[in-house]
Specification:
Layout lengths: L8 H24 L11 H14 L29
Length: 86
């Protein structure tokens, strides 16, 4: 007994919607990372280097080959200072 093709239309719609959602999320993540693939398994060193790159270039995944830091970098301290109790 064959299956009527009308019964497969909802499955096709669901498949297209999941595909469009996955492709859209992948594209947005790609755009947020500056055209690079998303990072996985970040440890403390990677986070520290990403923070340094953000402070140097203004972008989380940006990297610079300029040997000199931009103006104002010396005032951009990454250390988080706790508030003193008085």
């Amino acid at each position: 007994m064959p299956v009527p093709f009308e019964a497969l239309i909802p499955y096709g719609i669901i498949l297209v919607m999941f595909g469009a959602t996955g492709a859209g999320l992948s594209k947005i993540k790609n755009m947020q990372n500056g055209g690079k693939r998303a990072r996985r398994s970040l440890d403390q060193w990677d986070r520290q280097m990403m923070d340094r790159d953000r402070r140097l270039t203004g972008f989380l995944r940006g990297q610079s080959d300029n040997p000199l830091a931009p103006a104002g970098y010396e005032l951009n301290n990454p250390w988080r200072v706790e508030k003193r109790m008085s």
